[in-house]
Specification:
single chain, mainly alpha
Length: 92
């Protein structure tokens, strides 16, 4: 035989409050996951852009090196400093 007990209203309110807290936390977790997903997409795009910039830099530096020789570039003075033992490109 099944027994039914009527719980006091205060306990029912407590359980409803706890359930509401669960729902609030689950909603916030879902929102956080969506934000993380969006941030990862932004991060991936920025990493692609970073790699593109690296390739652009490499191309410019290789071009300078092939024309003048490889060395250190001082961006403040615009000078290319080639060490004595560094190979100098042959002019055609």
């Amino acid at each position: 035989m099944t027994q039914v007990i009527k719980l006091p209203e205060e306990q029912v309110k407590q359980l409803n409050n706890i359930r509401d807290k669960y729902y609030q936390v689950m909603t916030k977790l879902g929102d956080a996951d969506i934000q993380i997903y969006n941030l990862n997409k932004i991060k991936d795009e920025l990493l692609k852009e970073y790699n593109t910039i690296q390739e652009e830099e490499k191309g410019v530096i290789d071009g300078i090196g092939k024309k003048h020789g490889f060395g250190k570039i001082n961006l403040k003075t615009g000078e290319l400093i080639i060490e004595n033992n560094s190979p100098v490109p042959q002019k055609p």
